[in-house]
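Reviewers asked in the last cycle whether our approach scales beyond single polypeptides. To address this, we selected a multi-component target totalling 989 residues and predicted its structure end to end. The input consisted of the following lines:
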Amino acid sequence: MKFFGKLLLIILAFIILWTSPSYCKEPYKIGAIFSVTGAASFLGEPEKNTVLMLVEQINKAGGINGHPLEVIIEDSKSDETQAVLAAKKLIEKDKVLAIIGPSTTGESMAVIPITTSAQTPLISVAAGASITQPVKERYWVFKTAQYDTSAVEAIYTYMKKTGIKKVGIITITTSFGDAGRKALLELAPKFGISVVADERYGPKDTDMTTQLVKIKSAGAQAVINWSVGPGQVIVTKNWHALKMGIPLFQSHGWGSKKNIELAGKAAEGVIAPLGRLVIWDKLPDKHPQKALLKKYVTDYEARYKSEPGTFGGHAYDALMIVVDALKNAGPDKKKIRDYIENKIKNWPGTGGIFNMSPNDHCGLDMTAFEMVIVKNGDWEILK
Amino acid sequence: MGKGNILSLLILTLVIIIFPIVIKDTYLHTIGIFAGINALVAIGLTILMGYAGQISLGQAAFYGIGAYISAILSLHFGLPVILSIFLALLVSSTAAIILAIPALRLKGHYLAVATLGFGEIIHIILHEWGPGGPSGFGDIPKMNLFGYTFTSTNDYFYLVWMCVVVIMIFSLNLINSMTGKALQAMHGSEIATQTAGINLTKLKIKVFILSSIYASLAGAMYAHYVTFLSPSSFSLFHSVLFLMMVVIGGISNIWGGIVGALIITILPEVLRGFKEFDILLYGLILTLFLLFMRKGLVPMTIDTYKRWIHR
Amino acid sequence: MSLLLQFLFSGLTTGSVYALVGIGFNIVYNSTSILNLAQGEFVVIGGLMMWFFLEGMNLPFATSVALTLTVAATVALLMERLTIKPLLKKGDLLLMIMVTIAVSILIRGLLMFKFGKDPYTYPPFTEGEPLVIYGAVITQQTLWVIGITALSIVILYLFFNKTMLGRAMKACSLDIKAARLMGINVSNMVMLSFIISGLIGAIGGIAITPISLMEYDKGAMLSVKGFCAAIMGGLGRGRGAVVGGFTLGILESFTAGYIHSGFKDAVALLIMLFILFFRPAGIFGKTETLRLRKF
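The resulting structure, written as structure tokens, was:
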């Protein structure tokens, strides 16, 4: 009896240990592919930092249902081949439950066949519409960056309101600029806007005066620049130096204080559709995104001494969506996918309020943007 | 073909057959596939540089032409994949002829800059007129042959490396044949070769076409394996990488192409563990390689081996 | 008229940087017959180090320039002594070109480590409104860039033709053996040529950064464009690179202005290819001198 008593005790203790949440359970593994170096590193850097910070916060708070969270971040070097290799490694070697990233549309497209055949959920942080459409073929794929078309709609809606009918567009010859250019050209007729000049420049070009002068002489009432990186600052400086007399609109890639800093006085009066991340302090207190934006941005700035920018936010949303799914659906790839598709409703994130559905694997529209103007070196929401 | 080459080919074939059976990790297979694709380009470049003494800074252009033409023909025109690959090789060799006729009169740096300019122009064309522009395009059909569709990583591993072996046999034979002897003579002294009654320009153009065909075959393999293409995979940076493979592997031996391709493909994967430091280490390793293994890995190993035998 | 002028100004701005990089190519090429594909990295070093001293450490302008140039010269010196000198004896040109590429990757890695991936800029040398000439706008910094380029060209000309040291360097570029027989220390001249080309690059970087911003990976593009400029003007010809650089810049700008901005690089490259195929010695070079080159 004594012996059986002891055995019972041991078994009981074992069961308690097994089920107790404080006991160190097996970690949940998630993969991440970001362009930490290379041409798209302006995306990958804040994305990587965001994920590192969030993982630390989540694990400090006890993990997900007691399971610590482990995110394995791979650098794709802004290269599609490297992204493919990274995805292979994450799925085959690390056996991750889901992958967030890659940072660019091209890399996401290259990775999709692999994650789909491995039946692993992929939550891309790039913007291209082809990532989640056609949605039937993108069963395992989601994305958290707003559609480029939504940003264009926001700009065109504002232009329609202010009576601008003729625009000149200037875009960068990368996939970001190209996607914007296609959206700008495609949507213009719907808003009664005509594109009178369609100019381009390379990612490392040093002067865009020629293109801007051409836009001006084509009789445009406004310039729209679609780029990220130094190009958008150079365009702003050239636009200012030329005293063009017509307003300059930028894409949602403009949303970093750094750009205002770099362009200096030239940035005054530039208008752009921005996610609420960069203007969180100007939102009313009861706005559903305000609290989480405040925490994210202040934490990030305290830790990295720089701003997360819109792109860091995409990684925040992607990771938190997966974490939410893990918490409620458990560590099962199929269940995670189903949860994201059906249960992410009215879900406030940094990029907007997400409403995923079987027909929409992004869940954001143009209401995710506010039209923002630069005034006195700061953002101001346009009404 | 010397005894050494036949032995090496047998060993290579054996390793290729055994590798996927022994190692189950398909991540490593994928690295193997990309290494094989790079090796195809590097072998062609080794022949061009080491045996014909010509430099090319635009090899990524032929790689890109192969990939794009084959992808477009099979995706938009519905041609069988194998036929599209064949046509892609045809297009790329035509492009090579057009470039080679004026360019191969040039020497050294001038040829380098001409091929560089050609490469950049092709890159811009892919940007402006390629399907999907800079964003690229996907859903390219998978490789299929006689009704069998290649789907698994294993399939592609064998396919790519089979191509490498076939091309290796072909190239080794070529080098040993008359043409090869003439090529090597040309590298030694152009005037002497010419006096011996060999038409140099024709020969140079032939080798140039050959290297472009190898590169475009590699491109086609890439297109049908990854099933997504964008211009960024065919930039000047990639031309430089191919050059790096040849120089590191050893310009004077055709096996150098394969070894160089393996090293340049595997190195970034090994450096993954170093996170941020990787670009630094990458530059450092390349510099040290070039400084201390000047002849390249393969010729140096052979030299060491010979010295050891004769001791 | 004002359109044409505006395109011209824009072309001159970009052209002057191409010219400076092209001159750097030529100086190294003349002393070693190799192409230093790390040349563009010195422009980046110039821009970023200038920001570091001027904005990061709040040093006065002149001190910052001096320190930036010192850094650039040191990097060029180290590069030559550690990577070029050991290879020069063997004389394998291909290997040396590859080494310069490897060094450029290394420099890029170091810069990324120190500065991250963000672009940097600092205020123009002189504050003030842009000038308007016949309806075309030209910023004061653009004038600085063009002026500094012109000044560098004049100083280099004087150096190579009027000073003992410069003439010794020139002698090396004409005939190394004869120069050695005349008691010139060729190895030191090679080192000097690297330092000068490094300085030229850095000066370009310092001047252009307020206009074009600077980030760690801008160097590769600048190397390619400067390379084209040097080839267009005839490799090894000092004045050639200047003409080549400005021609390239103006060509790009005119293509963007009168044809389409999507084709500006392609048209510039095509014209460069035509020059190569039909006048390989450059716009002004003589074909006979080309035959004498060893590579």
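The first strand of chain B starts at residue 144 and ends at 145. We regard this as preliminary and will revisit it once experimental data from Aim 1 are available.
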